[in-house]
């Protein structure tokens, strides 16, 4: 008892102890203990009536711990009188977050279903008024400017918000949050170019990020490459960004390699893993996807990314109901998660539930109008419903968003073909080929279309390019129809009396099971005609340059 | 941190990836305004006797108050006060009790509301409008959670106190009550209340954007009303931009309200915005497909049905914008899927669109139309049947079917219309009859039919105070009326009709082109009659912009009047070829007449003769009496010039009767002038006594002609008439009359030749 009394008597001692234990706890992240100590400390400080500056510091510490415990109103209350910039930021920021939190709570229990869109963060207006006063007086530092920008953006004052964010980046270039916010507000390259941004190394990161967002992948990759060369090679951030960029241009091998590297460096990373799982899905790498899914569940099963990975996993195993369930879970965790809406749409498509698929895609579009996959998915849905004209609109939208993606062009071409709009269809297929056909189907379709329309020269030309294309890319494609092309070319050369080339094609035909018989028949025909020709001896008319197959081997 | 910034709104109504707007089936919920309405109803059902007149006014108010958007307390109290100040005061008192009291006062209020299930005798019985509303409200109130009730109470307090924050409205209470109570004229207020409500609603529109969300009921009512107005009286609907704002607002609060997308489609059609209209249409059907699938998954009633109609609507959209090829493709698609699922009704709709499309493309579609009528009759679709018949009648009229066939067909459809109360088609039918009579040159009949249409009461049950619709039928009838009046030289009446048309169909609307063309034609004709060709010329370009054929025809007329014969001739040749291709008989005959006139100018009367005979044959074959009479006039003139006045007079007599009965004033004058000239020509060959008599007749005809021409203020012709009159009087030795006529002639001649005169 006496000991206790004496200990209490020595408040200075207590204060010192408290300060040390606070910093110890802080280092170990024990937030509740910090708060208790801080409360004690505040009391002690009150007894001592310390000078104002130190009091400010104490209040800040206490408020920070409340803030960490998500008790925003409480934090704001203890910060109300503080004058330092840091305290002011924390004061405003806790008020903002308190408003956001209340808004989220309200939405669940609003008065009616229609009111849910009306729930607003009531604090925003007051914050804006106060901040704009300070702003015009020039009293805001980088962080508060950032907060002001966020408030403006939430109030849909986008133009002002952009200005403020630019100002924030000038005031504090190293604060990545301001850059990220700016990134969300920039819609096109012209807007990006018109902004005057601070000249700092972080700016390069921002520009690279922006390029990725604006689907200017090549420029983005260049930028990242130069950043790696200048010494950021070990940064997981850059590696992940490059991987995502490769994913966007569908360079699957590169992206997979990078993701694997990323996982080695940072095995418990959850961010971006949904993109990784997409890649694994596209390549149908079941074991790897399964491993990834199990691994992520072990780390944190209530993360949007985890749910998406599991959804992909089930989808690959053709358990589409379960896949849809997991995408739904992802959407419950974050309803603005765009990828999940689209993926869910795909799942419903697999389950032949077209109406639910349409709904899911529509939601994706509502979240982000620029989601080309959702538009494409809607187009596919209507195509399945046998409405080729109707789906044109959706494919066009998708094509508008990704003008250089051959898949949309091929889809457009197919729809036009179904509508007997041959001119448009041909244009689409040719364009699809010129922008770099991913699936290598455009030329074949174009050739077949020409064949149908009896434009044999054009058809032969297309088949020739097709064959060259297939052989030059080296890899074996499942759906490749080289035999069809060879068969047609053989017949074509035969008709045009180019017997050398015809027999070459016919011989090549014999390499394929489905065309062997025809190849042999053609060879026989050729030899017959040749016998004839030696008798009559006429020179053939050349129309299309003969196919040079010597350099390629099937 | 990013996740905190995103609005974490979780939708509790979502099951199976599908958002149900109303999982509880509640279409309404309690708001402070609804509490005020409840208070009003409570006062009305429970309180002391209210004067009968006031009660009636209040009763009329109930429905708009229940269905309309939420009003502020000011507006609400003002409206109630206009009906019954006493009740308004009571309502206000009750609200005051609640708002200035505690939460329990509101709870008490809801507890004391007459329960619709027990009160059998009162207006609040469970099946009545009031009872239903009360039940909705009670249900919605009882479903509120603790925090929601508190929030509602807070909202009520705010609602009530915001009323006081605006000064000037405070004295609404007692003093006004005493003043208004005594001598309120029943009839005047009673009629005004509704309108005033509307006006107030309109006045408050600009602020409306800030207004809270509508409940589903209110939204449905709003959409229904706006859609009805768009269809029937566009001027009364909100302005396109305001309506779009409203719709965007609605969609922001409830993105699942698909009907709003459809209205947005209709609205953007008004401003010819293909981009937004396509987008909205497709969005609507994407949503609809979902709601349709709730019942049966893929069957006839399921979303398969909406798919077909989606394609059909898309076809209609492209048709409206004149993209015929696109429309054709969409229509084929609709037909194909309708065929696959054996949906005959949809197929019929497709077929009727198909023939419309063919017609718009300018090809003959009568076979298709006939098929459509037969099939639609088989499937009992009266609307499509009579629409098809009307379309057939239109084609038949152009192609020269006999009048009695057409009239019979129209009569049959009319019976159908009245049987099924298809008011829209009745309007069209009347407008069509007007047009047909007009085409046949029976102006009186046409006028009568047009008046019939304009004076008819609408059959629509829900009228929303619309007196006259602004559908195409009305525009057509009014245009005919304007032209008929112009023919009779009643230009005052014409300008009034046109003014009305301009108000009813503002220039940006769909049918405005009709009156614009009509207006231009009338102005052009006037300028030509007055001989002010330079005034007529600018009209030609304007007419050509609206109607290419008509524009060419008018251009030829102007060129002819300006003596640029070669150009006029080449245009006429082109026009004739084109019209023969499109079977536009009326225009062919007119072109022939103008060509004949051109021949006159080069004195090629003999060459004009076969042309005129051909025109006459055509006009008779198609029963175009007005044109036939005009052709006869031309023929008679040619014969006169060829030196056979007896023949000319004989031919002329044939046309005289219909012209005097139905013709335009201009034609009457021309006919009489021609008759007089023939008579003069014949008199020259006769003996003296007969000559005098004949010349006397001619003088008489000339006098009548002069009267007609002066009605139209047609100076050139008037001058000719006076000249002839003077000559005749001279021959007859009537010096004073001769001098008078000569003087008139001189005056006119001076006026016409004065260089500055035409500009005035």
From TrEMBL, chain A:
User: What is the name listed in the Swiss-Prot or TrEMBL entry for this protein?
Assistant: Cyclosome subunit 8
Cite the source lineage.
Eukaryota, Metazoa, Chordata, Craniata, Vertebrata
Q: In which pathway does it act?
A: Protein modification; protein ubiquitination
Source species: Oncorhynchus kisutch (Coho salmon)
Query: Its GO CC terms?
Result: anaphase-promoting complex
Keyword terms, alphabetized: Cell cycle, Cell division, Mitosis, Repeat, TPR repeat, Ubl conjugation pathway
- Please give one Pfam family short name: TPR_8
Which residue range or ranges hold the Cdc23 domain? 53-243
Keyword Cell division present in the record's keywords: the answer is: yes
Record-level GO BP terms:
anaphase-promoting complex-dependent catabolic process; cell division; positive regulation of mitotic metaphase/anaphase transition; protein ubiquitination
Give me the TPR repeat coordinates as residue ranges: 304-337, 338-371
Gene encoding it?
CDC23
The UniProt family comment states: Belongs to the APC8/CDC23 family.
Keyword Repeat found:
yes
Automatic annotation (TrEMBL), chain B:
Q: Could you tell me what this protein does?
A: Component of the anaphase promoting complex/cyclosome (APC/C), a cell cycle-regulated E3 ubiquitin ligase that controls progression through mitosis and the G1 phase of the cell cycle. The APC/C complex acts by mediating ubiquitination and subsequent degradation of target proteins: it mainly mediates the formation of 'Lys-11'-linked polyubiquitin chains and, to a lower extent, the formation of 'Lys-48'- and 'Lys-63'-linked polyubiquitin chains. The APC/C complex catalyzes assembly of branched 'Lys-11'-/'Lys-48'-linked branched ubiquitin chains on target proteins.
Annotated GO biological processes are:
anaphase-promoting complex-dependent catabolic process; cell division; positive regulation of mitotic metaphase/anaphase transition; protein K11-linked ubiquitination
Gene that codes for this? ANAPC5
Report the sequence similarity comment from the record. Belongs to the APC5 family.
Q: Which InterPro entries match?
A: Apc5 (IPR037679), Apc5_dom (IPR026000), Apc5_N (IPR048968), TPR-like_helical_dom_sf (IPR011990)
Q: Where in the cell is it found?
A: Cytoplasm, Cytoskeleton, Spindle; Nucleus
UniProt-recorded name of the protein: Anaphase-promoting complex subunit 5
Q: Name one Pfam family in it.
A: ANAPC5
Q: Which residues form the Anaphase-promoting complex subunit 5 N-terminal domain?
A: 30-162
Q: Which keywords label this protein?
A: Cell cycle, Cell division, Cytoplasm, Cytoskeleton, Mitosis, Nucleus, Phosphoprotein, Repeat, TPR repeat, Ubl conjugation pathway
């Amino acid at each position: 008892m006496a000991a206790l009394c004496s200990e209490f008597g020595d408040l200075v001692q207590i204060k010192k102890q408290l300060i040390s234990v606070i910093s110890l706890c802080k280092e170990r992240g024990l937030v509740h203990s910090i708060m208790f100590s801080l409360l004690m400390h505040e009391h002690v400080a009150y007894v001592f009536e310390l000078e104002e500056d130190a009091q400010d510091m104490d209040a800040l510490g206490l408020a920070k711990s409340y803030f960490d415990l998500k008790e925003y109103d409480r934090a704001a209350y203890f910060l109300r009188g503080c004058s330092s910039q840091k305290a002011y930021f924390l004061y405003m920021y806790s008020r903002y977050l308190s408003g956001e939190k209340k808004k989220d709570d309200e939405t669940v229990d609003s008065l009616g279903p229609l009111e849910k869109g009306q729930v607003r963060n009531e604090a925003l207006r007051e914050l804006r008024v106060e901040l704009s006063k300070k702003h015009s007086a020039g009293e805001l530092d980088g962080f508060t400017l950032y907060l002001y920008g966020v408030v403006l953006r939430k109030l849909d004052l986008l133009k002002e918000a952009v200005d403020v964010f630019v100002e924030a980046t000038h005031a504090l270039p190293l604060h990545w949050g301001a850059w990220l916010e700016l990134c969300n507000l920039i819609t096109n390259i012209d807007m990006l170019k018109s902004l005057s941004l601070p000249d700092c190394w972080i700016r390069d990161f921002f520009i690279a990020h922006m390029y990725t967002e604006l689907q200017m992948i090549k420029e983005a990759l260049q930028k990242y490459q130069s950043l790696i060369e200048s010494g950021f090679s070990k940064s997981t951030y850059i590696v992940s960004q490059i991987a995502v960029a490769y994913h966007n241009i569908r360079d699957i091998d590169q992206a997979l390699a990078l993701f694997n590297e990323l996982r080695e460096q940072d095995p418990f990373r959850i961010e971006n893993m949904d993109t990784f799982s997409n890649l694994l899905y596209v390549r149908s790498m079941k074991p790897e996807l399964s491993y990834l899914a199990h691994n992520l569940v072990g780390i944190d099963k209530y993360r949007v990314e985890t749910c998406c990975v599991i959804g992909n996993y089930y989808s690959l195993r053709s358990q589409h109901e379960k896949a849809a369930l997991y995408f739904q879970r992802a959407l419950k965790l974050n309803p603005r998660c765009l990828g999940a809406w689209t993926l869910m749409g795909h799942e419903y498509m697999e389950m032949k539930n077209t109406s639910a698929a349409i709904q899911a895609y529509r939601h994706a579009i509502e979240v982000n109008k620029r989601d080309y996959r959702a538009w494409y998915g809607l187009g596919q849905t209507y195509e399945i419903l046998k409405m080729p004209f109707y789906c044109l609109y959706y494919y066009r939208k998708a094509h508008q968003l990704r003008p250089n993606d051959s898949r949309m062009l091929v889809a457009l071409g197919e729809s036009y073909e179904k509508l007997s709009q041959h001119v448009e269809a041909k244009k689409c297929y040719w364009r699809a080929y010129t922008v770099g056909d991913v699936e290598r189907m455009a030329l074949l379709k174009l050739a077949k279309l020409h064949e149908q329309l009896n434009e044999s020269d054009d058809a032969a030309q297309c088949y020739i390019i097709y064959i060259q294309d297939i052989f030059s890319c080296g890899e074996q494609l499942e759906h490749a129809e080289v035999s069809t092309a060879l068969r047609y070319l053989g017949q074509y050369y035969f008709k045009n009396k180019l017997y050398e080339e015809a027999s070459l094609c016919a011989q090549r035909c014999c390499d394929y099971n489905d065309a062997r018989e025809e190849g042999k028949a053609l060879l026989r025909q050729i030899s017959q005609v040749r016998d004839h020709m030696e008798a009559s001896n006429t020179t053939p008319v050349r129309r299309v340059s003969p196919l040079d197959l010597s350099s390629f081997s099937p | 941190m990013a996740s905190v910034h995103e609005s974490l709104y979780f939708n509790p109504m979502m099951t199976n990836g599908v958002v149900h707007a109303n999982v509880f089936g509640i279409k309404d919920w309690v708001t402070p305004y609804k509490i005020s309405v409840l208070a009003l109803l409570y006062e009305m059902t429970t309180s002391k006797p209210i004067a009968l007149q006031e009660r009636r006014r209040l009763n009329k108010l109930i429905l708009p108050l229940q269905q309309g958007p939420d009003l502020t307390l000011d507006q609400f109290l003002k409206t109630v006060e206009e009906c019954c100040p006493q009740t308004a005061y009571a309502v206000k008192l009750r609200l005051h009790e609640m708002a200035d009291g505690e939460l329990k006062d509101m709870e008490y209020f809801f507890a004391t509301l007459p329960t619709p299930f027990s009160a059998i005798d009162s207006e609040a019985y469970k099946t009545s409008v009031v009872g239903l509303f009360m039940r909705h409200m009670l249900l919605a109130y009882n479903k509120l959670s603790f925090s929601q009730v508190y929030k509602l109470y807070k909202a009520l307090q705010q609602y009530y106190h915001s009323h006081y924050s605006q000064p000037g409205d405070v004295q609404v209470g007692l003093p006004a009550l005493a003043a208004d109570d005594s001598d309120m004229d029943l009839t005047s207020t009673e009629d005004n209340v509704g309108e005033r409500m509307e006006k107030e609603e309109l006045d408050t529109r600009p602020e409306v954007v800030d207004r809270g969300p509508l409940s589903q009921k209110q939204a449905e009512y709003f959409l229904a009303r706006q859609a009805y107005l768009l269809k029937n009286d566009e001027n009364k609907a909100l302005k396109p931009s305001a309506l779009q704002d409203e719709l965007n607002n609605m969609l922001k609060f409830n993105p699942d309200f698909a009907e709003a997308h459809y209205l947005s489609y209709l609205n953007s059609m008004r401003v010819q915005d293909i981009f937004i209209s396509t987008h909205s249409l497709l969005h609507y059907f994407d949503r609809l497909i979902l709601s349709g699938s709730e019942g049966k998954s893929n069957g006839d009633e399921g979303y398969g049905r909406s798919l077909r109609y989606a394609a059909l609507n898309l076809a209609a959209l492209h048709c409206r914008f004149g993209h015929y090829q696109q429309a054709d493709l969409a229509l084929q698609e609709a037909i194909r899927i309708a065929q696959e699922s054996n949906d005959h009704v949809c197929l019929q709709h497709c077929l009727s669109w198909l023939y419309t499309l063919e017609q718009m493309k300018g090809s003959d579609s009568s076979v298709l139309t006939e098929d459509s009528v037969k099939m639609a009759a088989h499937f009992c679709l009266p609307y499509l049947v009579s629409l098809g018949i009307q379309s057939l009648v239109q084609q038949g009229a152009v192609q020269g079917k006999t009048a009695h066939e057409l009239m019979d067909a129209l009569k049959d459809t009319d019976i159908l219309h009245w049987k099924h109360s298809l008011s829209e088609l009745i309007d069209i039918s009347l407008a069509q009859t007007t047009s047909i009579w007009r085409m046949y040159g029976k102006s009186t009949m046409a006028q009568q039919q047009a008046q019939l249409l304009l004076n008819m009461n609408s059959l629509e049950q829900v009228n929303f105070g619309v007196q006259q619709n602004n559908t195409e039928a009305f525009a057509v009838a009014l245009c005919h009326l304007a032209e008929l009046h112009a023919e009779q030289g009643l230009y005052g009446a014409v300008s009034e009709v046109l003014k009305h048309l301009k108000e009813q169909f503002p220039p940006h609307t769909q049918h405005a082109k009709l009156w614009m063309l009509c207006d231009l034609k009338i102005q052009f004709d006037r300028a030509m009659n007055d001989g002010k060709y330079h005034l007529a010329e600018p009209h030609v370009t304007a007419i050509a912009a609206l109607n290419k054929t008509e524009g060419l025809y008018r251009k030829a007329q102007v060129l002819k009047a300006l003596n640029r014969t070669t150009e006029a001739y080449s245009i006429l040749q082109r026009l004739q070829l084109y019209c023969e291709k499109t079977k536009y008989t009326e225009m062919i005959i007119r072109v022939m007449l103008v060509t004949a006139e051109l021949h006159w100018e080069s004195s090629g009367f003999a060459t004009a003769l076969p042309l005129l005979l051909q025109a006459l044959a055509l006009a008779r074959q198609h029963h175009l009496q007005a044109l036939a009479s005009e052709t006869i006039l031309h023929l008679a003139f040619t014969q006169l010039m060829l030196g056979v006045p007896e023949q000319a007079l004989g031919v002329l007599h044939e046309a005289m009767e219909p012209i005097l009965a139905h013709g335009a004033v201009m034609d009457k004058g021309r006919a009489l002038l021609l008759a007089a000239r023939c008579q003069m020509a014949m008199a020259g060959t006769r003996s003296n006594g007969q000559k005098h008599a004949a010349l006397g007749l001619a003088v008489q005809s000339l006098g009548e002609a002069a009267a007609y021409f002066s009605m139209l203020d047609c100076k050139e012709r008037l001058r000719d008439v006076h000249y002839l009159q003077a000559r005749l009087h001279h021959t007859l030795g009537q010096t004073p009359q001769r001098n008078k006529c000569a003087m008139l002639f001189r005056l006119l001649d001076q006026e016409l030749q004065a260089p500055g005169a035409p500009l005035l």
